[in-house]
């Protein structure tokens, strides 16, 4: 197994990896909208875009991209955030011939109240 820790991402909050890859499978930890400089963008759309950018960086470190994603799991803090999150996800997978499976859950919150969305991915490596 290989740890995936892209330099553009901030260090994990604890003793875990941003991503782990085996010979064929890659899984990411849930990615919150935390930029490399420690800032958190406002709004669900901006946060979802950053979550997916972080996932893109983890995938790239293993030689993969969104076309290799089998499943996205996402979490938002309010039902009102679902449409904005889904619009970002749908735009990013629009051109893929096979769309990833996807689950979206509503949760009561994250480690900091500013976080509105978290996304994780499972991918099959090329």
Automatic annotation (TrEMBL):
Descriptive protein name: Enamine deaminase RidA (YjgF/YER057c/UK114 family)
Transmembrane segments: none
SUPFAM superfamilies, per database record: YjgF-like
Domain of life, per lineage: Bacteria
